[in-house]
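REQUEST FORM: STRUCTURE PREDICTION
Request ID: SP-0412
Submitted by: Lab K.M.
Chain count: 1
Length (residues): 220
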Amino acid sequence: MEQKTGHFRKPMLKVPVLADFEALQPASYNPQHDSEEYFMYCGTLGYFSVIVFIIKSYAIFVRKGHQQKLRLVLNGSEETLQEVKDLVTAEGLNTYVIIEQKLPYHKLLEGYQHALALLIPLRTVGQDQARFSHKIGEYLSSGRPIVTGNIGEIVHYFEHKKNAFIATEFTEEAYADLLTLIAGDKPLADKVGMEGRSLGESSFNYSIHGKRIAEFVNQI
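STATUS: Completed
RESULT:
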């Protein structure tokens, strides 16, 4: 692909998010292991507004009578973490929300494998419209469905209820509705998760892009 810049034409290679799809395989359902169902989010406390959004969306979900938990794996300052804990308390969610820090990587991947769904809300701001989070590739490799927004690169790869659960608007109610859909139709969630992994293997697997990148660099 080429891009014009003034009188010059510069080659440009578009590389999507990358993940190692051999390192993490989908786990078989284990009733004993999966007796406590949960949604999961992993991220830095630097995305505080996103974490607040997730908690408030989840609060709507719980108020509808659902019991599935929310598992947050967060890294960052103790001060910001306390703000998150205070919000959980204010929303009356202390018995529903699990907050973890510094989780060993193998435990994090295991958490992905056994989640009902993996959350990565996207805001209607320039940062989220321009970026394509590598967390998406890691999530997809687990075989569990992602819950995200119709923002940026998502529209070029994903389809709602086929290989992801996609909110059409960035509102707490819209995301709560997706959590409700997943909790009420687990066979669909399983199907969407595996379709998402299939998409990831064909589009985001690091091993298929190495040759493309090498050829591109050699032509410059």
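NOTES: The longest strand covers residues 38-44.
Reviewed by: T.R.
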